[in-house]
Amino acid sequence: MKGGKHVLNLTVLGWICLSLMTGCEREDEKEAEVPLPAQQLETFSMQHTEAGVKKWHLRGESSEIRKEKVIVKNPELQIFEEGKISITLTGDKGEFFPTGKQKDNLYFYGGVVGVNESGTLFTEELHWLNKEGHLYSPAEVKLVRGDSTWYGIEMVANPDLETVKMSKNRFKLYPKDEEKNE
């Protein structure tokens, strides 16, 4: 009987080990399903023009070119209006879509900051919708102008941050910060 118990315990132990190994193989299979980048680049830079006019310039620490998009690490985007930088955006990760329905749109994630003469924008997710010519964030946005602070969600804004619309607004505004310096 004592030997039988050991056989039973070893059989159970064997099944546990086999289950663990099979589980590990399944994890490896899942990781293998993630598509590998077609190309990886250290330092990345590109610009977009329309009718010979520069609209934006995107730089990054590195990039991975995937089937339908380019993933950029630590992106910096400068959006131009009338030949001048309207806003500079930075984030932890960016995505650019060179083709399809999202053609020329850019998406920024993680610690997104937008800076221009009108103020500074902070959020965790920001989209540059190129065809529409505006910024969009589904996440909470903090917009700072001088001592004034404005919070909201579902932001839609021009790149110069002069026209901004948000839902669920909370703010502390000072008239001196909303006046334009002429």
Shape: globular
For the largest beta-sheet, the strand count, sense and barrel status come to: 12 strands, antiparallel
Number of strands: 12
Q: What is the CA-based Rg, rounded?
A: 25 Å
Distance between the termini: 96 Å
Low-confidence stretches are: 1-32
Beta fraction: over 45%
Helix content: 10-25%
Description:
- There is one protein chain.
- With 182 residues, the protein is α+β, with helices and mostly antiparallel strands.
- It has helices at 2-33, 175-178, and strands spanning 39-50, 53-65, 70-73, 76-81, 84-90, 93-96, 106-116, 119-129, 134-137, 141-145, 148-157, 164-172.
- Helix content is 20%, strand content 53%.
- Residues 1-32 have low confidence and may be disordered.
Helices and strands in order:
Blueprint: H1 2-33, E1 39-50, E2 53-65, E3 70-73, E4 76-81, E5 84-90, E6 93-96, E7 106-116, E8 119-129, E9 134-137, E10 141-145, E11 148-157, E12 164-172, H2 175-178
Antiparallel strand pairs: 1-2, 2-3, 2-4, 3-6, 4-5, 5-7, 6-7, 7-8, 8-9, 8-10, 9-11, 10-11, 11-12
Please give a handful of descriptors for the protein shown:
alpha+beta; disordered N terminus
Q: Could you give a quick summary of the protein structure above?
A:
By secondary structure, the protein is an alpha+beta fold.
